[in-house]
């Protein structure tokens, strides 16, 4: 054999002998990992089904106005003449777990001098997309004060 033939034969033997070793780079635990992924997917689906029965407070519908709590928060509040007199600060629930009232920042200028007052839902109406109360700004400022620590 010539030198070139020996070199070619050695290279061929090296490729043939190393090819199976190179092909074995696959993870020997791949089947177990795939089964674990399947179990994780099943658990995720079960968790999603269990959680779907619940909702956050922000997604609760405020039935009289057909909006969510999240939509109601920060809405502007208008008097009967259509003038903006404040905005909704918080949506409040009663002892029965239902939305019963709002707290609203009334009066002031640029956040200074505002009074946070309690307004029951029965005192509020929705006219189009405007939240209104049938009282003047001065009358609204006389409503009971609301402090979050109450």
Fill in the keyword field for this structure.
150 residues; alpha+beta; 2 domains; six-stranded mixed beta sheet; 4 helices; 8 strands; 35% helix; 26% strand
Question: Could you please describe the fold and organization of this structure?
Answer:
The chain is an alpha+beta fold and 150 residues long. The chain folds into 2 domains: 3-51; 58-141, SH3 type barrels, CATH 2.30.30.240. It has 4 helices and 8 strands. The strands form 2 sheets. The protein has a 6-stranded mixed beta sheet with strand order 6-5-4-3-8-7. Strands 1-2 form a two-stranded antiparallel ribbon. The model has no long low-confidence stretch (mean pLDDT 74).
What's the topology here?
Layout: H1 3-23, H2 30-51, E1 61-62, E2 67-68, H3 69-72, E3 76-78, E4 84-93, E5 99-106, E6 115-120, E7 124-127, E8 130-133, H4 137-141
Parallel strand pairs: 3-8
Antiparallel strand pairs: 1-2, 3-4, 4-5, 5-6, 7-8
Entry summary:
35% of the residues lie in helices and 26% in strands. The chain is α+β, with helices and mostly antiparallel strands and 150 residues long.
